[in-house]
Amino acid sequence: QVQLLESGGGLVQAGGSLRLSCAASGRTFGRYPMGWFRQPPGKEREFVAGIGLSDGNTGYADSVKGRFTISRDNGKNTVYLQMNSLKPEDTAVYYCAAGWRDSGRYFRSPRSSDYWGQGTQVTVSS
Hints:
- By secondary structure, the chain is mainly beta.
- The protein is built from no helices and 11 strands.
- It is 0% helix and 45% strand.
- The radius of gyration is 13 Å and the shape is globular.
């Protein structure tokens, strides 16, 4: 069982930055690929960024590539999402996810997630 708790959301002006954190419970955190997803108002949940068991295995949605960076600290049971150059279209509830994969590589589909956090709101004003 893995429990996830996001923090770091808030209101920011366009062009600004935020860093989201996702703290995980349990000693098995280091065995799970992790991901960040978001759900804009009235839309479906979508992939933002993912990280596998090695830091070199990362992936990003085209809409955030070059602006967002995902990282993990297994010693602190935490995964981060650094968001720079934020745009109004980044406004959404952001969710942390953990999903077991035999390959240990990151996942893009919400259906691949075994555990979800409760979400944190990010609002970017123009």
